[in-house]
Amino acid sequence: MDSHSPIMVEEKSSARILTLNRPKQLNVLSFNMMTRLLQLFLAYEEDPCVKLVILKGQGRAFCAGGDVKPTVRNIVQGNWRLSADIFAEEYMLNYVMATYRKAQVSVNMHTILLVNYSKVYNKLINSY
Question: How far is CA 68 from the centre of its chain?
């Protein structure tokens, strides 16, 4: 697992753990991150070995949403088409996640810690 990648991927049995890894930016999704997540979700949906996808955030935030800085910059510079492409990718990712055929869990680790994170997490991993 590459600790410098904006999305870290971990395999545990039939589960895949995707960790958003931009903690200083509260894990806001860049266009490249959205594209990578979309690729991973689509690949895992077709992979019979994958039964569960867990999405979590590194640091204190799960995800603060899409990165609006490049979108605004593109519009101000007259490149509205680039911003439209960013929104199209984000909405496609939202659609794929909303209609996903396999089990998926999005987790804010700091909230789960309050309900004994290790037991819940291990139960999720070991049940798939």
Answer: 17
Q: Show the tokens assigned to 13.
A: 């049995």
The residue type at 1: M
Which residue from 22, 18, 9 is spatially nearest to 104, judged by alpha carbons?
18
d(CA 91, CA 77): 23
Give 116: exposed, middle or buried? Use CB within 10 Å, 0-12, 13-18, 19+.
exposed
Higher pLDDT pick, 99 / 114: 99
pTM score over 0.85: no
Q: Which has more pLDDT, 123 or 15?
A: 15
The answer to whether position 120 is within a domain reads yes
For residue 28, the enclosing domain spans: 7-126
CA angle 13, 19, 22 (to 5 degrees): 165
Cβ atoms of 56 and 62 within 8 Å: the answer is yes
Q: Is residue 26 part of a domain?
A: yes
